[in-house]
Amino acid sequence: MSDALPETTLTREDIVRLVDVFYDKIQADPILGPIFNPAVHDWPEHKATLVKFWSSVALGTREYRGNPMAAHRPHPILGEHFGHWLALWRQTAHEVLNDVDAEEMYAYAQRIARSLKLGLGLDGRWHPLPMHPGP
User: Fold this and answer.
1) pLDDT value at position 48?
2) Membrane-crossing residues (predicted)?
């Protein structure tokens, strides 16, 4: 008996489908829609960028060129939004992917969310400014 996890069968087409369905839900979501909709001026273009991002994360394609932290910094994101975003992501992943791939994408999303939350200073911790040496 092996303890190895089942191997993923995730493809770019799976990611396209996940991104498409998920961000359609985001646009209609009463909590996240008011944050995303004013920020995204071209949803098809934004979804294409997100497919590149998630393909880079999950498939190692390295096609995404951008700075997610800088992209999210100017928006009115609160720490509590991350839990809602993750729950919707997980639900959608299980709707459009097999269970193994859905949980893999959820694990990636958890790491990304944790990183963004920390980088945006929304993790509930105090983040002092770096000390600058004196003259």
Assistant:
1) 98
2) none
Q: Buried (b) or exposed (e) across 57-95, using 16+ Cβ within 10 A?
A: bbeeeeeeeeeeeeebeeeebeeebbeebbebbbebbee
- With cut-offs at 50, 70 and 90, classify the pLDDT of residue 3: low
The domains found in the chain, sorted by start residue, are 12-119 (1.10.490.10)
As given in the structure block, the two tokens for residue 105 are 């994408």
Separation of alpha carbons 79 and 113, rounded Å: 10
* Positive or negative: CA dihedral 54, 59, 60, 62: negative
The structure's pTM equals: 0.84
Higher per-residue pLDDT: 4 or 28: 28
If we measure between CA atoms, which residue out of 3, 28, 21 comes closest to residue 105?
21
Q: What is the mean pLDDT of residues 115-126?
A: 78
